[in-house]
Amino acid sequence: MWRYRATLPLGTDVDLVTMGEGGTPLVSSESLGPAAGLGELYFKLESCNPTGSFKDRIASLMVSQFQHEGVTGCIAVTTGNAGSAMAAYCARAGIKLVVGYLATAPPAKRMQMHAYGATVIEVSGIEEAPENLERLFDGCLELCQRRSWPMCWMAHRYNPLTVEAYKTVAYELIDDLGLVPDYIYVPCANAALFSAIYKGFLEYRDWGRIDRVPRMVPVQPANAAPLLAGYEQGAEDAVRVTARTCVSGAGNAYAPDGVLALRAVRESGGHCAVVTDEQTLDTEVQLGKQEGIFSEPAGALPVAAVLCDVQAGRIPAGSTAACVITGSGFKEPKVVDQMFDTRCHSVRYDHFKQAVESLELMS
Questions:
Q1: What is the β-pairing status of strands 96-102 and 73-78?
Q2: How many CA atoms are closer than 13 Å to the CA of 56, on its beta-carbon side?
Q3: What is the per-residue pLDDT across 19-77, written as a single tens digit (0 to 9) for each?
């Protein structure tokens, strides 16, 4: 990511807290894209970042700034990936991190935070009332102000650094492909990543690196789609909804960066896509078995959406599309146990040959 340092709002006198985040692989689809009738389908593997998600980009930028400013501690509220990323980078910088970890989030991500030495407090009851999350944030802000600590915001609405870090995904897509895809599909919760990628494309266009921007498509679970609600109502912002989904990290009732996201959709000629939880989990299985990509459910959202859209004729056959795979499947092993048959035959070493032959795997 730091090869683009000249475009990022961090002075040259700032020492970087970095572990090689960014520069993630862009791979072409060997199976799903051709079978669906797409011209080309690409996967941007943000799961290959140091802690397994795209959040490492903003964690590196934010913690670099914190360290430069002499910050000694900070607080984050998270459903997983943000807390894992901040915990790792704060550990490298010697900054104390307190994480409010929502009780409905995957346990594996909490384990990451503990491994990096964060103080983790599980928070329950958020789902009992729409205003409870805001109350939690208010309490965290009060604590931060009392201690002169920063709050770790992951939305542009609260922290403009966010889009500056994430926009490098767009730079990398263009630099690696050497062309502009027709469509970009991005999973959305707070919509910061989606909005930032659009900003990156706009900057490349303004600098003369490309002559157009892709059609931007934010993807959310069908039962947690505040962007679609705002888009269909003709609103400038996302509309608060009741969120019910098993797709961790994508189940926001409201998208704080909804204004930026809906502007990106309309200006680029894109659309808002939603897919069911069942479609998402089925696609996670397909990604593993047919593409060799182990994605968390949220990362499978955009792939499910582009396959549904081309089948429904919403985008033309032969289109070129790129999907951002935001996080690793290792983040949610419980889902893997539910979706895959992970049972194994158990034999002694000297019976392995007979076991393989009995399964007729060698024919």
A1: parallel
A2: 26
A3: 999 999 999 999 999 999 999 999 999 999 999 999 999 999 999 999 999 999 999 98
* Cβ atoms 79, 249 nearer than 8 A: yes
CA 107 to chain centre: 18
Domains of the chain: 2-52+163-339 (3.40.50.1100), 55-147 (3.40.50.1100)
Tokens in use for 293?
């990509």
For residues 148 and 158, what is the distance between their CA atoms, to the nearest angstrom? 17
126: DSSP letter? G
Residue pair 47/325 in contact (Cβ under 8 Å)? The answer is yes
- Quote the crossing angle between the two packed helices 297-311 and 277-286, to the nearest 10°: 100
Report the DSSP beta bridge partners of residue 121. 100
Taking the model in full, what pTM does it have?
A: 0.93
Strand ranges across the sheet with 96-102: 73-78, 96-102, 119-123
For residue 134, give every residue at least 6 positions away whose Cβ sits within 8 Å of its Cβ, in sequence order, or none: none
Q: What DSSP assignment string belongs to 38-80?
A: -SEEEEEEGGGSTTSBTHHHHHHHHHHHHHHHT--EEEEEESS
Query: What type of residue sits at position 281?
Result: L
Q: CA angle 141-146-150, nearest 5°?
A: 50
DSSP state of 85: H
Is residue 89 within 8 Å of 63, Cβ to Cβ?
yes
Give the Cα separation of 160 and 174 in Å (integer). 23
Amino acid at 278: E
d(CA 297, CA 337): 13
Q: What's the token pair of residue 160?
A: 């403009």
